[in-house]
Fold each of these.
Amino acid sequence: MNRACLFVLVAFAVIIASPTALHAQVPSPSATPLPDPQVFEDEAMHFRAPSGYYLLGQRHITVDKLTGDAQVVAGWIHPDRDHPRQIAIQMEYYEGNAGGFDGTLEGQMRDQFETAIFKNKKSTTLKNGMPAVFMEMTSGSGFNVQKFYILLWADGQRGVAIVLKAQLGDISTETAEQTISDVSAVRYPLGRE
């Protein structure tokens, strides 16, 4: 009997002294998943950049910090040496609708690019039906002509634009529309920041 009691005490002491024996019975917490580098998401929008585009960076700006000037909040690059492309999401404070925001953004782009020419402006919707505007802009001269494909909308507090920049002739309008089409948005929910 003493031998059996001694064996139980030794086994109990080994279990208590062994940290792996105690931890093996308690499930360890799962690691926090890393954010998807293809996704930008906030209170009122969700955008997924296509595969092949690499995140340059992103940040979140609350509505009270936005001004009437566009601020870039996220960017991706398609690093093809001969045919580079960039996607940027920009936001600014704006209380109107998409139909009015296109004129505001167009004026800002004309101030930034001296040879800005806009064409093919059309009303459209995002994936979830949010009213939007799609338009094209070219800028530059000679071998430095760049093409910008712009998808924009207004969510009641912000004017938001997704801009795809490429060299002239690198991609078609249809390809550009598809590249920046994985986006949905809703009216900005005030008080949820």
Note: Helices lie at 2-17, 19-25, 98-112, 173-179.
Amino acid sequence: MTDTDLTLNGVAKTDTGAANIFLSQTLTSSFEGFSYAANISAGMNGEWIPLNTTLNLTSIERLLSGNYLVTAVFTVESVVETSIQIAATANGRDLTAAPKQVITRLVLNPSKTEIMAQAVYVIETRAK
């Protein structure tokens, strides 16, 4: 069996007014299993700012429909200091500070080669 690699790049946000988050995602399915990785940037001050993140949890479960539900939880450690500036032109809103956590859930087709739906949840401040 050969590896099936799926790489997607795009602005992920839930609705107008939601936090601008850019996910550069890699989903890999092979005979050894499934993996998910993402580089995350946040819209801040009109620019995309890369974030240092730690992937804390990845889970995949098969749904009754035959599709798969993938959940990934990232903790944001810090922003990446860079002199490169890329304008964040999206319909969402810029953040005033780096988020604390980014959680994404994806629905994949039965062959794990297509994202059918995706949601991104951004935790901007620590819950008390």
Note: The longest strand covers residues 47-62.
Amino acid sequence: MDYKLFAEELKKHGNSGYHFWNKVESIDDLPHVSIEYIEFVKEIGVGSYFGGRLKLFTSKDKDFEEFNYLLKELNCHDFVAIGYDGTTEGCYCLKKEPQDNAVYWMAWSEGSPFQINDSFYSWIEKAPSKFFNEKVFRGFKNIKDINSINYIINQRRKINLRLLSFDKELVAHPNETKKYLKRYNKICLEIIKTEKTEIKWLTIKMLRTGSTVGNDNIDFVTIDIENIIPLKPTRIECLLFDSFNLPFESIICQYAPEIDLGSSMRSAFKEITTFL
């Protein structure tokens, strides 16, 4: 079976860490499920694709044990977890039947899998158009203009801020296309410019503490600071996306002027994306 579109995606964007995968040496490391899935793993492999937005694993991996343990706890004995979408909301599943090629998504909050495609081949070949994200990919490429980025980092040093408050209750985004997605926490920040700056956007790293994913529960919020008057404390209310949607204890502002340019998360900083 020829996984042409997926192979082309790996050839185009796969030499920088955006995709990280390995060939499977033995099919004994695979569960006895969809023939199309087995052929994909033999032809392509398993690993982390699209900057972690799609992860596939074998029965030898720790993730396989953990996700399938959760399936058993929910009495989903006819299914096998084969991957997930980089969050902890659920997993991708296949039936324990080689002739059944349907792909299912198991959301832990729902309690039972539902079919998302009747063919693994069709589903995985559509993955490049579904999962590819140019903004995320920029975080894996060589930096184009380091001098301009260093200039912006110096401009970020002119900003002081603190988190004044946050609401734990998730709300929808006022944007028309996102208004049904209740995945945002309202937060209130106090911003002080110590002097005039030449940047319009400021991106801030936020940590949700006390969740089951620990220090990985990170999200970023970007605010418009262009019209803030220097030396005048300014309150800004904004929405912080919750990518994990897990119970947490608190939100901590981890703002720092410096940007870790060695991390793929550098692409989350809107003020430097032009120069990546």
Note: The mean pLDDT is 91.
